[in-house]
Amino acid sequence: xxxxxxxPPAKPRTPRADAQxxxxxLIEVARAAFAAADGTVPLEGIARGAGVGIGTLYxxxxxxxxxxxxxYAAELDDVTGSASTLLQExxxxxxxxxxxxxYAAFVATKRGMADTLRAGWASxxxxxxxxxxxxxxxxxxILARGAETGSLRGDVEPxxxxxxxxxxxxxxxxxxxxxxxxxxxMDALRPTAAG
Length: 195
Prior knowledge:
The protein is an all-alpha fold. Helix content is 73%, strand content 0%. The N and C termini lie far apart (81 Å).
């Protein structure tokens, strides 16, 4: 008897619309909770805030690490994807400033989940993302457009901006101080700073 060959892999099922809405709402509530928290965020509070039971949360995210990883991935996608959107809406220098503020919000959200992320990365339970490369690519996109229009310097390395911003966000005590320091970075990026 002739073998029919290997069975093709099954296509992943598309989640039902209500299940996808629940998942999206859980991520949205978790983002806000992690951004506002200094310590561990209770998963029961996230489920309650999303208007679902704890069982629904665990169906979508069987562990705290799974939820943290999903929130982190969604935040990273948003912050890196916002560069092109901002360039469509704003002049390159204004887009750079707005993007830096969005990046600051990303780092603030990450603080509330930092312990879980570090433990997950160390154990291998959470994949280590290429965060810095993606952030630097977003900076490079805005910087290149600014250099084309003459609103931003063309002699600055995007990775240098990433390093400066990380220093600001990790050392900044308040959002007011962070805003002032972002302003100083923007001053350094303007073509008159090179002269």
